[in-house]
Amino acid sequence: MVFDCAVIGGGVMGSAIALRLAQAGQKVVVLEKSIPGAEASSAAGGILGPQIEGDHDDPLFRLCLASRDAYGPLALELIERAGIDVGHRRSGLLLVKYAGEDVGPLDARLAWQRAAGLEVERLDGDQARSLEPALSPEVAAALHFPNEARLEPRKLAQALALAAQRAGAAFRKGIVRGVAVEDGKIAGVDLDDGRLPAGAVVVAAGAWTSKVAGTGLAADVVRPVRGQMTELHHPELVLERVVFTSRGYLVPRGGGTVVTGSTMEEAGYEKKVTAAGLSRILANAVAAAPLLGSAEVVSSWSGLRPCPKDGLPVIGAGAVPGLYVASGHHRNGILLVPETARLLAAAVLAGRDPEELAPFSPLRFAR
C-alpha cells in the first residue's frame, strides 16, 4: 500500500498532524518505535504559557499565543472524537519573586506585554497569596497572567493518537532507518524490515529528528536537552494556578497533586533521573509552597526536549520535494501542537508552506 503521507514520530506533534491530514482525506501512517506519546510528549509539565516563556513580541511569540488560544476548541474536539478529557483549564499563572530578588525582570515583562496589548497584572506578595494561599510568606511580588492555561500531557497524547486512528490514520511500530528519496523526491521511509512507500514524509521525531537519515539536517540542528520532573501529593494542598519562580515551576493537577520541575541538562540521550536534579526540583517546590515539605513523592521521570540550534522551531518543507519537518519546539512542544498541526498539514496538502511558517523553515539550515 502506498500512503499519501508517512509521519515519523507518534508523539503529540506527529499524532496531531496525522489527525489533521486524515481529516482532510489523506491516507496517513504514523511510525513510532514505542507506545505513541511515550517520549517527551508524556514527560512534559503541560503548561500552556506563551506569556511566561516569551521574551519579546515576535513571530514565535504570536504563534504560541495563537496555539494557546486554539486549545479550548481542540480540547472539546478530543472529548467528542476520542472520549478523553485532556484536563485543559484556563487557570492562570503566577510568576513570583521572593524577598531580596530583583524585580526588574518582572517590570520589564509587564511593560512589553502591556505594550503588546496582553492581559497581565502586577501584584505584591499579599495579593499573590490572596489568589494562592499556599504560596510562601517569602513571596514579595508577582505577575499574574490570567489567560495562561494547563493540561495533562499524557491524556493529550492518548487522545490525539486515538482521534487520529478514528479519523483513519494507521499506526505502526518500527525502526526508522531513514527517509527514502528517488529521482530527487520523497519515495517513502526505509524501515528495518523494508521500505514503506509514501508520497510525502513528515519528520516529527522530537529530540531524535537529526538522527533520521535523509532529512538534510545536520546533527546539531535539533539536540536533546534533558528535563527531570517529579509528582508530589499533599491532601491539604490547594493550588489552582501554575506557579513559576526563578528556579522552576509547580503545575497543579487537582486533589492536592502537583507536578514540579524542571531541569535543563545537556546530557545527550541519557534519560536517567538524578539525585542532584531531584534535589533542586524539590527544594524549589518547598520554597514556593512550604506545605509541600511534608508531601508524598509519588513519582519522578525525565524527558528529552528537542532543542533547536538557533532557538526557533523547525517547521515546514524540507530541501527534498515531499519532505516536511515538525520539530525543535523545545519547551513549547505541548503548547505549539494545535498551530503546528494546522500549518504543517496545510503545507503538505498544498505542497508549499503557509506564510506563517517562513521564520521556522527547515531550509534555513540547508547544506
TrEMBL record:
BP term (GO), one: thiamine biosynthetic process
Alphabetized UniProt keyword annotations: Oxidoreductase, Thiamine biosynthesis
An MF annotation (GO) of this entry: oxidoreductase activity
Pathway entry: Cofactor biosynthesis; thiamine diphosphate biosynthesis
Keyword Thylakoid: no
SUPFAM superfamilies assigned: FAD-linked reductases, C-terminal domain (SSF54373), FAD/NAD(P)-binding domain (SSF51905)
Entry annotated with the keyword Protein biosynthesis: no
Residue ranges annotated for the FAD dependent oxidoreductase domain, each copy included: 4-346
Database matches in InterPro entries: FAD-dep_OxRdtase, FAD/NAD-bd_sf, Gly_oxidase_ThiO
GO cellular component assignments: cytoplasm
Matching Gene3D superfamilies: D-Amino Acid Oxidase, subunit A, domain 2 (3.30.9.10), FAD/NAD(P)-binding domain (3.50.50.60)
Chain ranges passing through the membrane: none
NCBIfam families: thiamin_ThiO
Protein's recorded name: Glycine oxidase ThiO
Lineage, top ranks: Bacteria, Pseudomonadati, Myxococcota, Myxococcia, Myxococcales
